[in-house]
## 1
Amino acid sequence: MGFDQYHEPPEELPAATRTFARLCASLTEEAEAIGWYEQRLAVEKDPEALAVMRDAQGEEFKHFAMDLEFLMRRTPVWREIAQGILFKTGDIVEHGEEAESEALEGNGGGSDGAYQDGSLGIGSLRGAM
Amino acid sequence: MNHLLRGHAPISDSVWKELDEEATERLTPALAARKLVDFSGPHGWEYSATNLGRVSALASPPCAGVTGLQRRVLPLVEARADFALSRAEIRDSDRGAEDADWEPLDKAAHQIAVSENIAVFHGWTGAIEGITEATPHDKIPLGKDTAGYPAAVADAVERLLSAGVTGPYGLALGREQYRLVAETGENGGYPLLDHLRKILDGPLVWAPGVKGAVVVSLRGGDFLFESGQDLSIGYDSHDADVVRLYLEQSFTFHVATPEAAVALTV
């Protein structure tokens, strides 16, 4: 088993950062699996095999979404940017630029507060001992 | 500008940033409950109640042939700690002073963190049922001597296992109990902190406001802290000498599995 999800010596990293890195690695793996199933589905002719792989890809969608939700719960600014982009119609790039600007530039501190809701953005501290 | 009215305060952006950072630094070590229980939100200042999925029967329907049920919800509480900062200190900070006196903010941050811990672990009369109020397990005495701590914690873990509550487990320690644990080496000098951590297979948390200690399961789904507006600094008023601010949050707390915790008393 490899430990290459860490870019820095693991013993120097806080537990919360190690957990974060594990979930980032898991997110990457789920995205890769979704892509692989997409390719397999595109070339497979056997209907039964197709059904099995569609079901398996559905599992990866779920895993990816759970990983993403976990990471965003631990990273309020990520969540804030994602809220400006996800599940919206219209121009994705435009939404992305606006969300980034609001989260990181317009509200990077000062009287507007560090986060969109004016809070300190502390949230959950699970894993931060 | 939202309900915090920060834009009305005679405070520059750079000092606001410093105040937010100072508050976060002071709050984070003391917010013990958030290190041990599930957290949901923040759902916003407008969010007022948690759905419990339960109903109460209504005694007298408007007319015959109809029955009525009323949904039960858990209303959020608003916790607020007021403080005032010297405008002279604020001006000095704008000039670049790195030793500005933010003590009133530090005290308010500690108070509101303690209030959160107490509400979660011991309850808030009329508003929140705390973990030690809800648990059906008998309290386990910790004793005054730390030599008895490993046995007490192991007893708590065994009770949780007997109730079918799996780990890992976390331990919230009141200020004095944390100090005692941190300073104690057992026979041969083995740190008591590490011994307890091995029994729990989980963390020990400094929990100002907690009386004694509390062992809780960290498996998830047993304790839910629901945040409306997460901890924020707002503006109240000012005069020539001071700016009056406050730390505020809205939240509630729900124990879904009362048997998933054991209280340890002194």
## 2
Amino acid sequence: MKKPWMINRRTFLRGAGAAVALPWLEAMMPDAQGASAARPPVRLAFFYAPNGIVLDNWRPKAAGELGELLPILKSLEPVKKNILILSDLAADHCWSAVAGHEPSGGGFLVGAKCKHSEEPEVGGVSVDQLAAQKAGLKTPVDSLALGIDPGMRGDHGYSGTYLSNISWRSPNTPAALELNPRQLYERIFRGRTPKRPDWNALGIEEKPAAQSDSIEGSVLDLVREDARDLETKLGFSDRRKLEEYFEGLRSVERRIEDASTDSHTHHQEGFKDDLPRLVLPDGRGIPSTYAEHVALMLDILTLAFQSDTTRFGSFLFSCEKSGRAYPEIGAAGSHHGTSHHQNKPDNLAKLTSINTHHMELFGRMLERMSKIDEGGSTLLDNVMICYGSGISDSNKHNHDNLPVLVAGGGGGAVRGGRHIVYGKKTPICNLYLEMLARVGVDLPKFGDSTGRLDLLT
Amino acid sequence: MRAFAVLLLLSVAAPCLAQDKPKDPSQKEKDDAQAKAKFAAENPFDFDRSIRTLLNKNCYRCHNEEKKKGNVNLQKDENPRMIFENPKVWLTALEALEQKQMPPKKEPQPADADRKLLIDFLKKTLNSLDCEHPRDPGKPSVRRLNRTEYDNSIRDLTGLDLHLADDFTPDASSYGFDNIGEALALSPVMVEQYHDAARKVMLELIDRKAKNPGSWLRVFLGEGVSARVIIQVFATRAFRRPVEPALIDRLLGIYDKARGKGLSHEASVRPMLTAVLISPRFLMRLETARPGVKEAYPVDDYDLASRLSYFLWSAPPDDELLRLAAKGRLSASEVLEKQTRRMLADPRSQELVENFMGQWLQLRGLSGHTPVAKKFPTFTESLRSAMRQEMDLFLGELVRKDRPLTEIVDADYTYLNEELARHYGIDRVQGPEMRRVLLPDHRRGGAVTSAAVLMLQSDPERNNVPRRGNYIAASILGTPPPPPPPDIPALEDSKTAGKEQTLRQLLDLHRSKPECFTCHSRIDPLGFSLENFDAIGRWRDTDAGAPVDASGMLPDGKAFRGPVELKQILLARRDEFTKTLTGNLMIYALGRGLQREDDCVLRAALESASKNGYRFSSLVVTIVQSFPFRHRRNPDY
């Protein structure tokens, strides 16, 4: 609901001349109670760290206000007030009698068990994709599923898909994992400069795209009609693939329309040096080092949130069970191998370095988010990011006492700076249920949830 | 199956319904029961009418989806086919029924006749593998082109080798391969990627045509050929089969529309071709169905051509295959065999090496494996590249020249350049180019003792004995051990205070633990026999100052030592090796997991191999000629 006295930013700009970069105007701000139209929306993200985490170097000794952070979390000191460490959450659905890692990655965000099969089938739609399906249509891109490593080979009768994906559009279809920053950038920003959103314009109805008579439109129409004919000849599981195909054609169509008309009405102006400009490497567009690759992917995610290009994302630091070596930080052996640490100090030290390295890259992103002004609040205030692993200790393959933290203010829902210890085996799905509620997706249950996780008290 | 049973039910029930309408319910029940009994007597093994009732009464109460008593769920196998596919569980059930261990004593027991009926049913069902009359080619699944297949298809279609798929979303790996129909999902982002890629192809093809004079299509486009001929040729090749005239007309409609808007001939061709490149007919392998047919039927010749070419070349059929398909001759057995041999001998079969062998032998990880530089300063990028080329050339010769598949285990030649030769301790090779070299002894030769495999099955900083052993047990012999239990006890658990122990002593200790013994007694000896090779595959006689002990004893008590004797053991078990290779090759060829009926093909391949000196082609030809490769059935709607 828009208040009548609020100046529509677009109207204002028309008078002032669009070339001028404007500071945020108080008159455009929502009142203290947060008028819905002008408040930046909550954005959700889910970060997955594979092969468990050395909890001794993560979990604060006591519950309550955060004191000095332990080594793995040390890099979060500057944004500590926006961090909630959640202890004793469990993901029973990650357990399997025959494999430790495979169902942990694939099932983590789904909240139900993965089928023991080489033909991948998880127990439902993952939390990020569910949010995107219910609330993602307001932005040009419904969600992002980002990663670094190409797929893994499965083992013990599980498809490699389970190790390589955490985001699932349907039980059989993982959200397409994007690894190449250049291609990602080009796809989501469509060759245009990302713009600063005008939250005051959020409520404005978009005009339905005019029936276009373009040649490109005819190409898509033809292909769609032809595929409809094919569909009748296919079996159930193959028709599913075609449904995804049609959805893809719609995305292509939207971007063609966007190229001619700015259908995303609340975009206003180019960013003015909030952050250093993104530099996409030449050639294929993939940075040569792991850290630079991660940082660039997270910069693009940040930019996608900042410009309201999407509101939902997931990020995989590496595949579950990944054997990636990190010689650059003194952990040359296989990550998975090291994670079966057998309590050897050398292994624990290496594993801690890997965990810390991931966290530093995450912390860097949070710091950048904390510097992005969204008109009285920062981007960090308006995100809610779950960071965790489906395995607690890779040496034991246990799925309780998980390392989980929530970063960001959740649009005011989260009071950070604390360590909360829940009852043993509180389902992590309770957290997902709470996060869904924060973006307006109210569900009675998600996975094995027993209720919304209480974060405020 | 179930639909069939319902039909039967209707046909049996119909006469009762037609008779006297107002019938008292108890009489109707009696009639029903009688009809049921009569039907059961006539069809004792009918699952839905007889067997399921018995299972319901005697088995499902405990062994169901929820209770899974003893971790056994019998209810999930809903028909005889599923029971047939799950022999491990049902053979146990059969035994328990025969021994009267089940149902448990304290539970109500079935009548002897019922018990016998169940036993007979299970025996018949589980032994119903009938290789003379194969029936099930497996569940059909549309196979989306994977990244390699996409790139090769674009290359063959346009003459442009653009590698656009490098940046597509990675393909899922199932059963160890990235071409499995059920795992190759399609999601909207990928359609955007295909659309982008199609634009890039058009850009290269038309706008930048001067830069690519080699493209046949470019020449074709430049010669004033009519739009109809262009689209006819392009779509036929792209869809790998003749295109219905109506679709050609619709594609031409796009061209006409563009011309109508004043665009040039070339600019108008572009959207027409784009439509082809983003069509599911190009992006997926859609096979022609025969609506209404219940049984399996032969795939049509064009589909067979695609099955063959994507299997052996990871690419679309070439002109010769399409020509034979057009004449309906490809499916003739002798033609099919001749084509298979032609394709194996063709350089394009290198794709089978890279994609099939590369995944089966797990060589694809080579570019991502980096030995610790401090420990292995002689490792260089050029050495890595030579390791890869060795395998490409060696396995390429095996495929193209049709060498015996046992050479994968042991061969008396390989391909080396100076750097790799020095790495192997061979000093008469000079210069950077790879060449065929006869080996002085059997320590090298074959994939198992290649630097590539030995390095990849090591950790970056040291050897990994169980890992190498597991590789041989699983990939070569087809007997993967079950996963290790979680919370593995630390190797130096029982402290032998202060005493430095060798890896062997530690693993001996490990094997002494009962939870570790079963598997490690099988895999460790295999791994130990390769201890003369370090973590980058160099030969060594000592390890940390002590002489290398490469001896081991297999669970059957056979003692052996070193790689040469390991190879002898593997060669003695060449039937297991052949079956493992065939099974993997079949999964790759069919794009699906194996089912029990596929055993028939494995047996036939083994027989053919042993008659033909284990030549690689004997497996490929057997698979190509097999029932599941040449047939399909309609999907479940």
## 3
Amino acid sequence: MKQTFTTSDGIRLAYYIDDYTDPWKPAPTLLMLHSAMSSSKRFYSMVPGLAKHYRVIRLDSRGHGESEVPASDVPHDKWRLNKDVLELLDALGLQSTHILAGSAGGYTAQLLAIHHPGRVRSLVLLSATPGFRGDQGKSWLRESKTRGMRAVFGETIDERIPVAEADPRLIEWVLGEICKNDLAWLERFIGHWTDTWFMDDVSQIQCPTLIVEPGAHPIGTGAAFAEMEQRIPEAERIVYENGRHNVFDYLPERCVADALAFLKKHFPEERT
Amino acid sequence: MTHASHWTASDGTRLFYRYDDFTDPWKEAPLVVLVHPGLGSSQRLFGWVSHLARTYRVVRPDIRGHGKSEPGPESGLTHERLALDLIELFDHFGATRAHVMGSSAGGMIAGRAALRHPQRFRSLAMYAATAGIPPSRPAKGNWLERVGRDGVRKFLEETARDRIGDASPEHVRWYIESAEGVTPQFLARFVPLMASDDFTERLRELDMPIMLGVPDPDPMVDRSEYARMREYVRQLTYVEFSGASHSMTAEIPDACARAYSEFLAKVEAQ
């Protein structure tokens, strides 16, 4: 069920809680942060598997899904995205949480673990490097402005979901969801991430971290995943051979199984 | 997507359900209705949801007089009315047919509804549910008398072991609290209704896949009652859960839901 709260800069954000853990026992919390051009909704296929063991919270990032799109004069940067998450945790009375995040959601997740280590118990990073340096994101936006999002993301969808393997109806649905986004907001949101790279800081991540690397490296910097594993003290990395970027959309069962195995290994006391 | 909501049955009674749906948005996923036991509520079956909701649209109604559902008019509690509560719920979700699982009294309601509206049922599953209650059973435990005298809570506390076995104290407390909304006044109507009209032999009229999930041994039900049902079911899937107690759908939901998932997959593949 959708719930909302208002951030300290006045933006109404939507979030969802799904919880199928035993109600008579305390349950650990898992926060899901979605990628750019996405929403909580896109995590639907991962929820039942996770919510059996964790109280699952999904936040619609500002400007995405059911959350308000900030006006153009509202300042925006990565620190504001960090605050959105911290303010949600505060509103829910949560000192700390596990985080499972896809792509840009994983940029915020890493920055939270670096700068607010007490609030993050672990990270599961699906196709998330330390930022999105380079021209790729900027070119999507540039092209979308002239030719439309549908054309641009339709042509490049195989970078996100393997066209030869995946259900065409999934692809169609994901494309439809991508195109619901506000292009002016994406220019600010993605634009900021394309100017961000914090590889030098990831060594400060103290919590157990699972890096899921899409093996085909269609988006971003492929070599970054191995470097993250080197630098993050408690990191482990799984490569999905020939995997495309949006593993969270097209390999949900595999992502859930790997996340649960990782969490169980590092947090045996949270046996659920 | 999940939500919980009231809706209005055709006799004007406000009923309540919980809905959980994580199926692929481009698919028309089958509807599965999970009906809780008497002296319970939809909360009792929460443990089933994560096993089913990725593949099916899962609805858990509160039976009238239970949970957040109103009891309805005093004279209106009949087998037909309880059947319509289910069928109208299918309509509410735009489903011509549905799979229905009922636990204990919920299974009796589902079975009687299937006999009245067989064309609306894709399949029927009855867990720890007999096809009626022999008059001796509630009399044996003085159910109504005790509930009337002591209240629902005390009655459940005193019979918890037969119902939910060796569950932890916290689990038992939750079990009792999830009987919210049930009153002795309503049970005085509901229990005799459940005990009337044994439909064991009529099960043979049902030409649909039927699953019987049976706790072995059930401290509250004589084995012969389940054994008799087996004789009359034509398309039978029979699963025994050894060591389970009568309220097994709340005691061991994972094992129950896994067996039900397998049954549903088999039915859907036909």
## 4
Amino acid sequence: MLHKNKISYQVLQPAPGGYSFCWKLEYLNGLTKTGGWNCDVKDESMQAWRQKSTDMLRAQVIAMDKNRNKKVIAECPGPELFGFEWVYTGRLLTFGGVKARICGLTLLTETERVACYESGQVAISPFSPQLINKYPQGRQE
Amino acid sequence: MAVTLFFQDAKSAAGANVYADALIGGGTGVDFGQVVNGQYAPIIDQSLNTGAQIAYLNHDAVESPITEVKFFLSNYTATGFTYGGSNTAAADYSSILAEGQASDESASAKNNGNGLAGGVWMDMQWDVSTTNQFDISTRSTNVKIFGNGGTDGIDLASAFTLGADAMLYSADDTLEVDATTPVAGSIGKNNDTVLGDYAKIRMRVYLRTAFPDGGYFQVALQVSYAHLA
């Protein structure tokens, strides 16, 4: 059952091996764009923040367990979407340049941040675009 | 867009000053040195509250800051690292957290003057004075003890968010000035004067006078952060 607010979300049961995530954008014309699973690609054209923002129906975070079962773990109406952020974790004291790995995906609106973690847990906190100085411009319109 | 986070003992935008102390058991990282019961490490002069492991965090992202920067302590066990401590990694990790849980938080704890301070501590104010550093009795917003309460700073869910007061801006990797509008948990891009482009933190390991064990202890300081997808 998705909790309804500007962002809908659900907490998943812990899964052996944890969850992987991808972002998904659905448009009014029925087209969709989906990112890779736990995939922070270098090609900007494949990144969520560069995708078309107009005529977007909804934005979603999809979770997948090791058996490839998929569920929508968070979503918001397209016009409410501010962006997505990958969540990383890594060891500080034993590495210089931290070799971090992806451990979650966050959905951002103008007012909320919903962080979805590999454990299935979801953390909700207030968000404002002003918290991010000079967020990149360049969405395709 | 992979981003590399640098953890250094001196500022370098390119991450040239990463820690490289040889660690017992193999690998490199930070060696805090020997901790005497009733004191802390690194230590210079206990009565003057001097000595701390200063560390800088910055990153190489070019499009946007990293956000939600948090710290927690974890078991040392990891692929490629052999535990070199005296007991097991799990037992020593538990001991260090228990030491943090048992720690005193009075004004005398900052330099362990009463022999009751224990655990791994972090001070997240870049320009804190020598006198005030690690004074958890008056600066609990910026001074954190891993394992405090038995619940704090021990996993992703209980991790300590990087304080806004840790953020500074350095135009030349030498001078340090206050970021104009820092945000807790955020580290700006290189040369970001608003959020700041470096986080400066201080760390110490304290041992209570009553702490019974000796030998090497190893734990992993974990960081988590978020970046544009």
